[in-house]
Amino acid sequence: MELLRSRGIPVWVMEPVRGGKLARLDEKYEKQLKALRPEESIASWAFRFLTGIKDVTVILSGMSDMAQVEDNLKTFSQDKPLDEKERELLLGIAAEMSARNTLPCTACRYCTSYCPKGLDIPELIKLYNEHVFTGGGFLAPMAISSLAEDKRPSACIGCRSCEKVCPQGIKISEMMKKFTQALQG
Ligand code: SF4
Ligand code: SF4
20 to 30 A from 114, CA-CA: which of 49, 89, 145, 161? Predict the structure, then answer.
């Protein structure tokens, strides 16, 4: 990102509220956030987090009704960056939410040299996690479609060589199959 910035290239963030997934959270999380910022919407937390990242120059938020437009205008009309306590709370909630359905790949890449198909396994798991977390957003399908066909999850032959060396015990071949089916659906 720093390189892009130093070249004057804007860093855009798409789907800042992950297709609406971050605009509504579990009641217990919403209560925690509302306790700190009772006047602000849940969606505003995603924007405030992003505006605190200096490299981000453009935030592209899709809006589907006037209430969302008005809420976003309200958020961006005031510069109210998250403080350290708020940031920590938000990251803690994000970690809990991510751990629920996503796979705990650490991107150690121990597995990649064992794949006879040369798949970028950690990158595909990252996209799978994105897809699961957003309940099927467009970012992961778009990223997968930009790959050569022989580098997509569908190219996995289920040999499980990768699984023998994964310290996280991830069932990679199952993930590839599920991801392929999800992308077709
Ligand atoms: S199971 Fe799939 S991802 Fe794992 S090594 Fe075999 S082809 Fe590669
Ligand atoms: S070995 Fe496991 S944790 Fe490491 S990159 Fe591969 S899938 Fe992820």
Answer: 145
- Does the reported pTM lie above 0.90? no
> Does residue 154 have its Cβ closer than 6 Å to ligand 1?
no
Domain boundary pick from 73, 100, 127: 100
For the stretch 84-98, pLDDT in tens is 999 999 999 998 887
Give the β-pairing of 11-14 and 56-60: parallel
- Beta carbons of 111 and 125 less than 8 angstroms apart: no
**Same structural domain for residues 73 and 126?**
no
pLDDT digits (tens, 9 = 90+) for 104-133: 999 999 999 999 999 999 999 999 998 988
Nearest residue (CA) to ligand 2, atom 2: 166
Looking at the structure of the chain, the number of domains it has is 2
Count of residues making up the chain: 185
Asked if residue 86 and residue 29 are part of one domain, the reply reads yes
Residue 68 shares a structural domain with residue 9: yes
Ligand 1 atom nearest 158 alpha carbon: 1
Q: Which of 113, 168, 171 gets mutated to test ligand 2 (max ligand atoms within 8 A of its CB)? A: 168
Same domain, 50 and 72: yes
Q: Is residue 121 part of a domain?
A: yes
